[in-house]
Amino acid sequence: MVSLRPTAPPAHPVTVQSTAPQADSSVRLVTGFAGFGAGSVNLAISSSFLAAGSPGPAGLLAGVAAGLWGAALLAGAVAFLAKDRLAGNRWARYALAGAAAAHLAAIAFPTSTTSGLSLTQLSALLLTLMIIASLGWLQRHSGQQDSARQPAGAGMRPGRLLLAAFAGAVLVAGITTPGLAASTAGQYAVPHGEHGNLAPGGHHQR
């Protein structure tokens, strides 16, 4: 028997566009910027150790270790932004945690060599913690998504991505700049506007 009652049209599923991919793109940019900042600050720490009058074996070892770690952070930030993947994965997280512990120990137990680098060590610590927190956020949200991972900036409006990049760069610069200025390299840096001025008055000395 055929029913004469009108049938309701099939309901179309409501799709809600998630903002997680857009947030992931912003956090990835901040992670990369923090990697650049932490690498630069660690290179400044290395130069401060090596520029000491007589650093001794411990100071020399600390300077070399900080320099290698800073170079590794810079290379890792480039690889992370290019491939959207953390090189070393779990071991890199252990290395970041160890670096944060080393910076914290240098602040809590200063020596004659590290006493003048407290602000630089603090900047390195904050940037390292920022990297660890950002990676943890990305890992937690990537496990909740079934879609394939996209490169940084994919699926995000250009205006929002530009705003996120600007905000992340300002935040990282605000932490990095005081740390670089407090290092030996920052203390001997030529002030802006005075590059190439070898004589008073702004004229090159002949």
Low-confidence stretches: 11-19, 198-206
Structural class: mainly alpha
Mean pLDDT, all residues: 77
Helix content: 55-70%
Number of strands: 0
Cα-atom Rg, whole angstroms? 24 Å
Strand content: under 5%
H/E topology pattern: HHHHHH
The count of helical stretches stands at 6
Biggest sheet overview: none
Total domains, how many?
Answer: 1
N-to-C CA distance: 109 Å
Keywords: Membrane, Transmembrane, Transmembrane helix
Transmembrane segments: 58-82, 94-113, 119-138, 159-181
Protein name: Integral membrane protein
In short:
The chain is mainly alpha-helical and 206 residues long. The chain contains six helices and no strands.
List keywords for this structure.
mainly alpha; 206 residues; single chain; disordered C terminus; 0% strand; 6 helices; globular
How does this structure look, described?
The protein has 206 residues and is mainly α. It has one domain. 64% of the residues lie in helices and 0% in strands. It contains 6 helices and no strands. The chain has helices at 20-50, 56-83, 90-108, 118-142, 158-182, 184-187. This is Integral membrane protein.
List the helices and strands and how they pair.
Elements: H1 20-50, H2 56-83, H3 90-108, H4 118-142, H5 158-182, H6 184-187
Helix pairs in contact: 1-2, 1-4, 1-5, 3-4, 4-5
Protein name: Integral membrane protein
Keywords: Membrane, Transmembrane, Transmembrane helix
Transmembrane segments: 58-82, 94-113, 119-138, 159-181
